[in-house]
Write a structure and sequence with these properties.
With 313 residues, the protein is α+β, with helices and mostly antiparallel strands. The chain has ten helices and twelve strands. The longest helix has 22 residues. Pfam families: Exo_endo_phos.
């Protein structure tokens, strides 16, 4: 029995360590920057030592583990509790990472024809993928910063896009910014978001620092000026402190608002890693969301995401 209790205490200690990393933002370095993405899975696993302690009547362990489970629940459960959307004008936004141009243009085009988004943001936009998609003439307007490799992004839209530029030339990946001009409606700022990922490769050991820098270069929310929408592959989940700091400036996650904040978006191509939620549609707090869905696209390891946003008129 002492050995069994020791095993339970060790498992609880591991869970507490995970909570400290997640709760206090110790995720700016490898391997924590990568591992913290799996917090929802660890939250479910925390129920196992609680159940084991209850079954064996290890009451002190059960009390401590119960507190741990409650903290995990506080971190994770709000993402699956839907909230009401404000009144306003509907704006449908779609985002898709092509996996360096490997994602099926035909399947993305079929989604566009079916869902009829007003705006499409694309990440890892290569010149070849951009040319093939543009040839379909699904959108009359675009702001594209297509580049070889993973660095390019772009925006397609039903209405004119002006003031197109990069968010910050110091960002490792180009992140396209443009202003959507809808006739008779207020303008909307749109960002195709794609910070560099915190990779775990030994030759790229400093990538978490660069990942944090790219997230910090994305514009904070504001309650003045045009409403801002940021959509794309943020290479971060809501368990990452740099991403939470960005959201906490005043953004609303479309998926979280409709209770789908745990819908996984990557990796979706047979990779053995458990899928996590790193693709998001954000709108500043003046707006909201009424729906969110994710769709698997052949060739890409990211799912396409589509959100119906509500923008104040």
């Amino acid at each position: 029995m002492r050995l069994w209790n020791g095993v339970l205490w060790l498992s609880v200690a591991g869970l507490v360590a995970w909570l400290l990393v997640r709760g206090f933002g110790f995720d700016h370095r490898t391997p924590f920057a990568q591992l913290v993405s799996f917090t929802p899975y660890v939250a479910v696993c925390s129920l196992v030592p609680l159940a084991a302690a209850l079954v064996t009547r290890a009451w002190r362990i059960a009390v401590v583990t119960g507190i741990v489970v409650a903290v995990f629940a506080a971190f994770v459960v709000p993402r699956v509790v839907p909230r009401g959307a404000p009144d306003g004008v509907r704006l449908t936004v779609m985002a898709f990472n092509t996996k360096i141009g490997a994602g099926s243009v035909e399947e993305v085009a079929a989604l566009v024809r079916r869902e009829k988004p007003d705006v499409l943001t694309v990440q890892e936009l290569t010149p070849e993928w951009a040319a093939r998609f543009a040839a379909l003439e699904l959108f009359p307007y675009s702001a594209l910063r297509a580049l070889p490799g993973a660095a390019g992004t772009g925006i397609w839209a039903k209405h004119p896009l002006t003031d197109a530029r990069t968010v910050d030339p110091k960002s490792g990946f180009d992140q396209t910014f443009a202003v959507l001009r809808r006739p008779g409606k207020p303008p909307v700022e749109v960002v195709s978001a794609h910070p560099r990922p915190p990779t775990i490769r030994p030759e790229d050991w400093g990538s978490p620092r660069r990942w944090v820098g790219d997230l910090e270069r994305l514009p904070a929310a504001s309650d003045s000026g045009p409403v801002r929408v940021m959509a794309g592959d943020f290479n971060a989940s809501l368990d990452h402190s740099p991403f939470r700091e960005l959201v906490d400036t005043g953004y609303v996650s479309a998926a979280v608002q409709v209770g789908k904040g745990l819908v996984p978006t990557w990796p979706m191509n047979g990779n053995h890693a458990p899928p996590v939620t790193i693709d998001h549609v954000l709108v500043d707090s003046r707006g909201g969301a009424s729906s969110f869905d994710a769709y698997t696209v052949a060739g890409s390891d990211h799912r396409a995401i589509i959100a119906d946003l509500v923008i104040p008129s």
